[in-house]
Amino acid sequence: MTQVLAVSRRNQPHSRASTRVRVLVVGAGIGGLAAAIRLAHAGYAVTLVERHAEPGGRAGVWKSKGFTFDTGPSMVMMREYWDELFTAVDRRLDDYITLIRCDPCYRLHFADGSRLEITSDLPQLIANFERIEPGCGPRALEWLAHTGELYRRGIGFIRRGMDRPWAVLQLGQMGLRYGRAALGDLQAMTRRFFRDERLRQAVTFQTLYLGLSPYASPGIYGLLAHTEIAGGIYYPIGGMHQLATALEAVGKELGVQYHYDADVTRLATEAHRVTAARLADGREIKADIVVANADLPYTYTHLLGEPYPRIDRKKFSCSVVLLCLGVNRTFPDLLHHNLVVSSDLLESCRLLCDEHRMPADPSFYVVATTRTDPAQAPPGCESLFVLVLAPSQDPDHPVDWSVEAPKVEQRTLERLEALGCRDLRQHIVTRKLMTPADFTGKFGNLRGEAFGLSHGLTQIGYFRPRNRHAQYRNLYFVGQSTHPGCGLPMVLISAELVTGRICREIPRGR
């Protein structure tokens, strides 16, 4: 007989247990963790189940031979959204985690051998830009002002709920100039301020954080480079996984019940409601509300047994190949964050995003975490996290990653050595390779994509999958493939929006 796992209601401060609405959060990614603490603080009885043994989802950690590696997000941008989240549940972020600002933010390495450091030190930034394009300083300041206003207005738009058709019309509230800029071509906008292609790449490559080509991006994403410079980027002592453990700690204080190694295989439905979640071990969890932090297409296909409507017409973001390298020496020339730009970024992005093929020299990103947190490696050693852009799967012509991944690894190691990491391969103590196939197997990403559904104009805002199921009206979604999109700040906004909607539609006491 199927066992029933009752949702615990102990240590819940807001109302009598007998009247509490039971919420089940499926998935302990950052979005699920953030939604859980917001709902618990609002007075709901919250249980969170996670198929893996620990919280974090893609913000994972791998440890080997004294080395510690992030296996997902590698920096904290838009710190204010973390502060807001903790403030919303009557906590202080600094009481749970130590964030260190990384400045310079990162260094870009171009194919011609030139380098550019991006920094929040404005005079130094302008000087760095001027070395690439003499005389561009005044235009660079204009660009900062323009993208700053785009950020202010764009974030205001993004933080609105998108559950009504007229939400898309609210873009007009950005004003004629900035509404046009938001919908326009990112490259065309950038050419107004910079002539040198390297500078244009430096202030547009950030769309790759979304798995979107900077040559096929709407202008709204010009705000990404601005946020790095104006707001800075941070790293948590102990690694990015500390963000997940901090959220879990807050949740425990608020009475959230966590169950790990609990694999949900099906959501049971009845008429217009989800009635329970069934686990692989036969247990069943009943709840009044379900919040799915599992990737949205996966939730539809595997947990509801129905594909997301017209999923074959959707565009997916690109993916990544990840290398974790523990080495028994240091490479002082590396900053904490380093980006190696493809010799032909336009062609590389076309292959990745349009043809779903692996370029010969894709852009890649190197993180040397010991620059900020020496404890991430043994003394005199280095923990290197290398993220290589890769295609998501074309269902008709899938990549065989068992064959392609070792080739990518070898080429990347060679390019790292050419970059200045001399004899790198001779000093590797431990290593791990992750491919798009792992994103499918471990996280359920339909096409092996690393950043969810793509973020082009036809798949953002009102046109992105909604955060509540159309038929099952107590099933909500949080995370990268619903509004507003991927990236840690957007996922935090996603949690804010979905919990606000739940509180309006299904009050906590009844």
Main sheet properties: 7 strands, mixed
Instruction: Specify the CATH homologous superfamily of the largest domain.
Output: FAD/NAD(P)-binding domain
Give the CA-CA distance, first to last residue. Answer: 31 Å
Give the tally of structural domains: 3
Instruction: Calculate Rg over CA atoms.
Output: 23 Å
Structural class: alpha/beta
* CATH level-two architecture of the largest domain: 3-Layer(bba) Sandwich
The spatial strand order of the largest sheet comes to: 9-8-17-18-19-16-20
Sheet-strand content, in percent, reads 15-25%
The helix fraction, in percent, is 25-40%
CATH topology-level fold name of the largest domain? FAD/NAD(P)-binding domain
What would you say this structure looks like, in words?
By secondary structure, the chain is an alpha/beta fold. The protein folds into 3 domains: 4-60 and 76-98 and 239-313 and 455-505, FAD/NAD(P)-binding domain (3-Layer(bba) Sandwich); 120-231, no CATH class; 318-443, no CATH class. It is built from 14 helices and 21 strands. It starts with a strand and ends in a 5-residue tail after the last helix. Residues 1-18 have low confidence and may be disordered.
